[in-house]
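Pilot study result, target chain (609 residues):
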Amino acid sequence: MNRYIFTLILLLGLSLPLSAQEAVPDIRVAIDVSGSMKKNDPHNLRSPALNLLVGLMPDGMYSGIWTFGQYVNMQVKYGKVNAAWRRKARREADKIHSRALFTNIEEAIQRASYNWKKPDKRYNRNLILLTDGVVDISRDADVNQASRQRILEYWIPRLKKAGVKVHTIALSENVDQDLLTTLSASTHGWYEQIDDAGQLQKIFLRLFEKSARRDTLPIEGNRFHVDDNINDMTLLVFHKPGAKPLTIHTPNAERWSEEKAPGKVAWFNEDTYDLVTIKNPQAGDWVLETEADPDNRVMVVTNLKLKVGPMSEHLLAGEALEVHAHLEQKGKPVMRQDFLKLVQFSVLDQTQGDETPASFSLQDQGEVPDQKVADGIYSQRLDTSLGEGLHTITIRADGATFQREYRHVIQVHGQLAKLDLEKDQGFLVQLRPEPNLLDTHSLNLSLKRADGEHSQWHEEHGVWRVTLPESLKDSQITVVMKGKRNNGEPVEVEYTRKLSLEQPKVAAAQSHGKSEEHDKAEEHHGKEQTGEHADTLTAETEHDKAEEHAGDEETHAKDSKEEHTNWTLVIWLTVMVNLLLIVIGIGVWLFLKKRKRKADAEIEQELKV
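Predicted structure:
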């Protein structure tokens, strides 16, 4: 009888909507301390950035910090984050230096991921890797290349299998960009390339939000509202060096500063930010007396949470982004319609550099992309607004007595791959697939030529190259790229170009959007994706741009001189030079032949003896 009662209770329990237990964040950090950091981070801004990351980590998650140069050191022992762990981490953050030799990226990955051998859904695993260099463990280039290859062929598959997201930060333009982007793209992580160490703090904030789920409150006009469901609150407030100290106005009209704050407040101050943690904050409206910054945050620990479904990190321009959100109270989905009728769900889409975000409401009416009417899950689909660039997607739940907010940054790419055409004893065709969109290991490239001949592609550091003869001048080629997207969907893209030596590289770049290239993408459901992806012909660095510009000026000068050239004289000189070269070649050939006969005779004589 008891067994039947237990079974009935179990079945009733299974019929109730339950929330899957949230994975515990596990964030490990590996920071480059090689000597080149003296140039790229002269003021050692890695230290305050790491302190910010440490201060954002909530109790109960797991973390560890490693530094690497020639050797790898565990700066802060891996373990559960608590007040003691944070104190230790802040002391060690102040010891970051720029004195090490070499850059042992492979061992940093190996040491930081020592117990990540198989997947474990209980943990949300993330590795943040900061470097300003390339794989450099020896003066022998072959040794360095072997280490780099092991990262690509052994460590990336292992990390991917263990469910680890690798987020990479390149603090220089001289990094191995292909390696770092491959590390992040292959593991569904995030890649950032910056030239100013002053950006590190906000980059660490972004990577923390991608690695650990924290509920936040919206800030409008430096004002935010705290409700009765909030237990703890952490304020992150950015400011310029030397700015007026932060003052916090509480709902009961108190004014707090770093010097005048009650015992329940932990206040950590750096030159460019304040990090303030408050236990059991008073309900009501709070005000920050400081200069507004869009990256300021109010992170809270609460029983009333805004849950947002998985969203892509990278999209192709024109693709749709589906947003699904719901509220949870004490771990269970909120489905009471009388309560939800008082809540407005919305999503804001803000492009980098655009001050005014586009706003859309989320609906629970069972219309696509919403799956079921009145199930408490609110949905919206963003498509036409998602143009190329960096987008901050903000989801909000605004109730009568509370507010919740969630932010997610995505990168929208203009095309699946970039096709470059250069003059190189004929034509050098280069295709650069976007690793954040494509599974580069699945790619298969072919080239259709006017003469019907076969061309052999060569891949190196993420770039596919093929050289075509000058005899194909003014003919048309078609590059066909087949493979899979990172989400598993098949893709086929065609790039059609006309080969022309007369068209300089810069002129081709200026005709962006008017090329003869046509892209076709086939999605997994068999639908045809249309749209043109014009190739961009841009130089890799400012130095290359300067050289290219100088080359254009030189070409222009030569073209001007050619207007006054005596072509009869040029042809006559060319013929005479060719005849002279032929005579010299015949003479050298006869001399070498005579010398070889003499050497053969001497060898034969020695054998007889």
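One observation from the pilot: The chain has four domains: 24-211, 225-302, 310-413, 417-542. A full batch analysis is planned for the follow-on phase.
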